[in-house]
Amino acid sequence: MIEHIESLMSELESKVEGVLVKDHVLVLDENMQHSLEQRGFGETMKNKFFLKPFESLYLLYVDKLRLLKGKQPVHFDHLMDECIKQDSEAFTKFLIYRDLRTKGYIAKDGFGFGSDFRVYERGQFGEKGAKYVVFGLTEGRRQKIGILQKQIEQIVTMGKEPVLAVIERRGEVIYYKVSKIQFHQNKDQPGFSSIEF
Q1: What is the pTM of this model?
Q2: Domains of the chain as residue ranges with CATH
Q3: Which of 37, 56, 92, 183 is the most exposed place for a label (fewest CB within 10 A)?
């Protein structure tokens, strides 16, 4: 697993240099933008290339991002604090994103189900659409089953496979593939309806 991170990150020839703008990171170097985009990082917004908060946190975590706010360097803990101010789910998103990247998947921002990501099959990014939508739940946090059911139905309607990522208290992520099953009503079997107990 660690070897995969190293091989993926060694493809980035040098550290990414970025400037903190709220909880996003602006990357100015065009060659680096292209390199990041090819590896499934970042997106262009208003003609500028930004890394999402979870991407920035991940790149800081694997020591591939040199981040500045003004002329001051920004470290992981400071960026996490900034991200949590903007989005209370930032830490959950980071844990899921880091785990998916570590396992060799490319994950992009999801469809607004909370802590969710569009996840591409290994080697399929840029060639095919995302196969999965991974959405997160933190262990111990309550969630109404009706909300989960609606999310799953919406994901299936989009033609994606829903995957539930449960974050344990220790930060470990466990994945559950989710599918819908319908139970048919039991009907009286011939010969059994007249049995008395």
Answers
A1: 0.83
A2: 2-86 (3.40.1170.20), 101-177 (3.40.1350.150)
A3: 183
